[in-house]
Write a structure and sequence with these properties.
There is one protein chain. The chain has about 130 residues and is an all-alpha fold. The chain is built from seven helices and no strands. The radius of gyration is 31 Å and the shape is elongated. About 10% of the residues are buried.
Length: about 130
């Protein structure tokens, strides 16, 4: 910009000149149309890290492991003879829920790897479904 807004004389500029002076140059150079036609906007995608790819499986395994550890501790208290009423139900429940969630998280890792491989392959071999009526 040539001058700040306080230095613009009124009535001297045409409408298009005043619009050019009020619009910052960075906004006029990068429009939606020009950004959609640049190759770098479409091809320069960063690949997610391993933690971002497997965050759900990691979350399930950590939750299942903590439930399993609590179940082991509470079952150990039952076998030691401490708090027989509470530990007789909570120990097996936490053990089973923790083991189930941990196994689901472990099984989800190969499924996620297979889905990532399938998404990275090009769809050149894709055939549309044929409906025989």
């Amino acid at each position: 910009m040539q001058g700040g807004p306080e230095n613009i004389p009124l009535g001297v500029c045409t409408v298009s000149q005043s619009r050019d002076q009020l619009t910052p140059p960075s906004r006029t150079e990068s429009t939606v149309f020009s950004l959609s036609h640049t190759e770098s906007a479409w091809t320069a995608e960063t690949s997610p890290g391993k933690c971002e790819e497997f965050w759900f499986a990691i979350h399930l395994m950590s939750t299942g492991g903590s439930f399993l550890a609590c179940g082991v501790v509470i079952s150990g208290l039952w076998f030691a003879g401490q708090c027989q009423k509470a530990t007789s139900i909570l120990g097996p429940v936490l053990l089973s829920i923790g083991l189930m969630v941990l196994v689901v998280g472990v099984v989800l890792i190969p499924i996620t790897k297979e889905n990532r491989k399938r998404l990275k392959k090009p769809l050149s071999h894709y055939r549309p479904p044929v409906f025989n009526l």
